[in-house]
Amino acid sequence: MFYQLYELNHAILSPVRAAVDATKIYFQNPMNPLTHTQVGRTMAASCELVERVTRRYGKPEFGLDSTLVSGQRVDVFEEVVWRKTFCDLLHFKRALPENRQDDPKLLIVAPMSGHFATLLRGTVEALLPDLEVFITDWEDARQVPVSEGKFDLDDYMDYVIEMLEFLGPDTHVLAVCQPSVPVLAAVARMEEEKSPFAPATMTLMGGPIDTREAPTAVNELATKKGIDWFKRHVIMDVPFPHKGFMRQVYPGFLQLSGFMGMNLDRHMVAHRDFFQHLVEGDGDSAEKHREFYDEYLAVMDLTAEFYLQTVEKVFIEHALPKGELTHHGHPVDPSFITRTALFTVEGEKDDISGVGQTQAAHKLARNLSQDKRAHYVQPGVGHYGVFNGSRYRSEIAPRIVDFIRSHPSLGVTPVQAARKQPVPANGVDTRQKSATQAQATTKPIPLDDADDAVDDLKQLAGVGPKREQELNKAGIFHLWQIATLTDEQADDLAVRMGGRTGQDLSSWIEQAKALTAEKDA
């Protein structure tokens, strides 16, 4: 009933919010003689404060419209490139020249811990100039119908693996806070299976890998209360009329209450200062407050099964560091990680994931060579400062970019990747067919010398980095393969590339024939 009471309280306060909003507009009207007086500013400030503390904050926008690349301002476009029930994969596509060398691909796995992925806006913004950035945009569980099924810790790992397979070889992954555990587990499983799609690097930031190290108040609460307490007190049914009606969730407003309760004095002082800034007419300071709290107070619900498993496995049982964590019943063993380079980042004053908790990942990945390891503790920052703020931009982000560029590849050739196709979302395993799929043309790909012989397909007019990736995914790595395509094969290739007709490919075929002839001559 608590969730229903929360909704009822919000509904009851709606007329109050409308009234104070109207009053604020009245006292901010330049035609009102009271607007520029102490009384008018105090009334407007009071009304805005009341409206903001009783408001339900919706999902914010990333709002990243441009970035600087090599000193030039370029446009940035958001696009959903992969989608499943509980997550969209967003790509921040930069309007770069087609002949520019590709930047490393980075998958940022945002926390599923109550806030939306936009909490990492600053994280993305600082990395956009140097990297091709993708981020997980998790769905609010109260907006997912019960008929869509469950989402638990195993499903989370599945999503991470599927996204890495979708993005292809030599992708890099970065996990902030909570997803550090499932991301480390997912990479361990991919390494165990010798997947060519395992990430080239893995960056873990402020994550609870082993909460026995420097336990914080959050960690101690979990161990003190036990999992049964959480089941009884924080799991609730989504009320009508939300799409997820009757789905069991951990409500976002409870998570927010917990976070704010940890530093209640700071939040009270911040709102008092906000009121003073409004009265004094300090618009810049007031706007900074709005920007921060518009993001901080926007929360989402988590599925009950995912939340409870996370609490139990990560914070109570310490399953990963003890070697007891499983993925669909299969043990997760980080000692299999030998190819993916590991970078861990912590904040000196982190009161959520204490210093040493993230660094514990290095102990678990014990077979990883020293040249593929790095650890950094940022002085003077708390949990939020690990992935946002001035010190993140000046100290942490450059280190992440440098680590990624220092370990650009997993050492997997495009041909090897083509020989092992990912398992698609429909669950049908096509990996048995991958050898034939990689030979889509009249001649087999020469696997023995493919590393040296792979051609730059961007030599063809109309083929940019994106088209080259599509051709590679279809098993095309050489100009002679395109030059020898039959009409039937061209039509088949067109289907794989999303509908481009065989007639459209004829230009590429003619160009490839000419280039191949020049090369042979």
From TrEMBL:
<dbReference type="InterPro" id="IPR010915">
    <property type="entry name" value="PHB_depoly_PhaZ"/>
</dbReference>
<protein>
    <submittedName>
        <fullName>Esterase</fullName>
    </submittedName>
</protein>
<feature type="region of interest" description="Disordered">
    <location>
        <begin position="415"/>
        <end position="440"/>
    </location>
</feature>
<dbReference type="InterPro" id="IPR051321">
    <property type="entry name" value="PHA/PHB_synthase"/>
</dbReference>
<dbReference type="InterPro" id="IPR009656">
    <property type="entry name" value="PHB_depo_C"/>
</dbReference>
<feature type="domain" description="PHB de-polymerase C-terminal">
    <location>
        <begin position="206"/>
        <end position="406"/>
    </location>
</feature>
<dbReference type="Pfam" id="PF06850">
    <property type="entry name" value="PHB_depo_C"/>
</dbReference>
<dbReference type="InterPro" id="IPR029058">
    <property type="entry name" value="AB_hydrolase_fold"/>
</dbReference>
